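[stage:ingest] chain + small molecule (beta-D-glucopyranose)
[stage:ingest] validated
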Amino acid sequence: MSGFRYRPEILQGIPDHETTYLKQYEHWFILEPEQLKRITDHFVRELEQGLSKEGGNIPMNPTWVMGFPSGYETGRILTLDMGGTNLRVCRVYLSSRKRHFEQIQRTFKLPEEMKTGTGEQLWDFIAGRLELFLEEHNITSEHDGTIPLSFTFSFPVKQKSIRSGILQRWTKNFNVSGVEGHDVVPQLEAAFLRQKLPVRIVALLNDTTGTLIASHYIDPKVKVGSIFSTGCNAAYMEECKLIPKLENAALPDKASVIINTEYGAFDNDRKVLPLNPFDWQIDGESARPGTQIYEKMVSGLYIGEMLRLILVTLHEQGKLFKGLDITRLRHENSLEASFLSVAELDVSEDLGDMREEFTESLSLSPDLNDLKVCRYLIGLVATRAARLYACGIAAICKKKNMKRCHIGVDGSAFNKYSAFKGRAAQGLRDILDWPPDELDWIALNPSEDGSGVGAALAAALIIEGDHKANPL
Ligand code: BGC
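[stage:predict] done
[stage:export] tokens:
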């Protein structure tokens, strides 16, 4: 099968002329090492710009977490993590044994309607779930009459201190009214008051900050915390003297602060990312067109939709699912990232598991050739996501001149999509040109469920007075 560059063996058995149209998709989705390098170099420039006084696409938000935990932090703390899909409440116990903790937790699904309602509805819903958890575990107030809570809020916020955060914009197709431009801490605390919960927010942090703290606590070689899930983002520790926009904050010479990059906004002005017609469509139909362009090409929320748009287009062109009823496939967001990962796990000759997945999720039963083409397209979409993901990580490492380190990665798309890690690692190798016979110099290590302990440690750093933040 000539002319194909990527995994042609999956198309074996299908005559060449029946699949020539796929070359266009290769052109759209295959990223050569040179392209990845160019994107990464532009990424480094945008990270720098975000730290400058003028700013740029990438917010580069100082988090006011100004150190890593020693491993000896102690205490018990309630944590609440509002991600893109779930709400996770934890009670974390940090014991006096080094790097030792225990936690109890409960996850609640965030109903779809909460993502587009009013702020008050969202905060009241969260307060209600928290109340359930407190009752379930009989958690009562501390000696000062309150229950301290560390709140992980996985959206871009501008922070004046670790106890506050003004929402810059919703991402991940959230569109809740009355929150953008406001501090989310008093809004959530007002909901606690309405429900008479004695809960007080002691820290507000991003999921990437929590992941960085939690994974560094377990493995001090971790220098970057990253999320690859519904959204995509990373945080790292920066020297304050290299952050021009903090110039007036009168911080000590040697101070460092964790930067929540919010790099899902990379290249919002579309200078280097190779957007194809499907990318434009996904952006155009999103809740916030023109924002989070990089995230929309990479993260779990969008790769399923990307595949769906491609499959519908090919059906309409008479190339796929001929004579089949694709009604369910026409429903927006009817394919999730998990569909792609399950399909890629099927290595059988008849792609039986993959067919079953099609039947279950879409009431479709494609023939073997169609399944092979779908499998090939899934590989293209997911590989591009993984290789673009590598650009963000490589950019931080290049900017900080970190040649060898570990990256703590959390998020369902990373932990559950088994092919992702290897592809992202290959992307890093292509960008950073490690000697071929050496193991990865920068290793992507899973940091599962780090958000609870990360948030607890951030709070412990403050409560124990180790936190030397000097708010603006
Ligand atoms: C948000 C980030 C978050 C990431 C992963 C993005 O959409 O803007 O704050 O870290 O998703 O959850």
